[in-house]
Amino acid sequence: YWISESIKDRLFEDIYELGNDLGRGATCRVNKCEHIGTRQCLAAKIIPKKVKKKIVKTEIGILLKLNHPNVVRLKEVYETHDEIILVLELVTGGELFDRIVTQGHYSEKDAAKAIKDVLTAVAYLHDNGVVHRDLKPENILYEDLTENSALKIADFGLSQIIGPDVMMHTVCGTPGYCAPEILKGQKYTKSIDVWSIGVITYILLSGYEPFFDNNERVMYKRIMKGDYNFESELWEDVSENAKDLIRKMLTIDSKKRITAAQALNHPWVRGTATKGVHME
Ligand code: ADP
Ligand code: MG
């Protein structure tokens, strides 16, 4: 049984002191914890076992294999009779979501820097056959509270390893960031993550969601039609390069959608963007 190797037979409580709340997700809670021996501070993601075992196993397997500066590192796994505890690298800068709420929206320079970190992490995941599937500003965390802090991708609860020809077929976590092919019930691939990054880029630059509608059904229809625009005056001063990348990420046809690796080479991400110049 491949997971048992990673599960410690010691008790979590013997090794760590549980600290205050860091956050909560749909399926878990995350607390600060301190290694009693070394006083190192880490994060403990506590998942109740009533959550489908399959999801948890996949999450553990994926996280243990990953090692990248823009991906939250999994250090250890503990198991109690009713919980699984993932000991994660502690990040202290808070969620991308909270900084967007505080700042309203980002300058192009700051947005490009943030999106570069996200694309770097996602290109790494995709290279390793991992699709995140739930990319949104709540799952993208700042390493620390400094202004120049790097971003790290967290929460692989919905992701899974795909083989070269294996397509995935599950429902999307959060509608606003969900690719049209998922809503249409079509088969989908890692390109769904790029769509989500397109939505995140749009939000970073404007402060609002591209497909938002109070009526969820209307929102779904807008996503499936790719019905968004740059008409708000908020977009007047945004470079053509930024809009060009968003268009390429929010492309309905997933086969024509830009890949994470290609997007990393886009002039807007590389910081070579010139305002008003259209790059093809
Ligand atoms: P879920 O799978 O339930 O969505 P997440 O992994 O997204 O759980 O964690 C929920 C929240 O906990 C995150 O949005 C974040 O605020 C916080 N969090 C998660 N991992 C860490 C970490 N390594 N360090 C600090 N805070 C974290
Ligand atoms: Mg989450």
From TrEMBL:
**Residue ranges of the TM segments:** none
> Which regions form coiled coils?
none
Molecular functions per Gene Ontology:
ATP binding; protein kinase activity
Q: Which residues form the Protein kinase domain?
A: 16-269
Q: Which domain of life is it from?
A: Eukaryota
Q: What is the official name of this protein in its record?
A: Protein kinase domain-containing protein
Species source reads Patella caerulea (Rayed Mediterranean limpet)
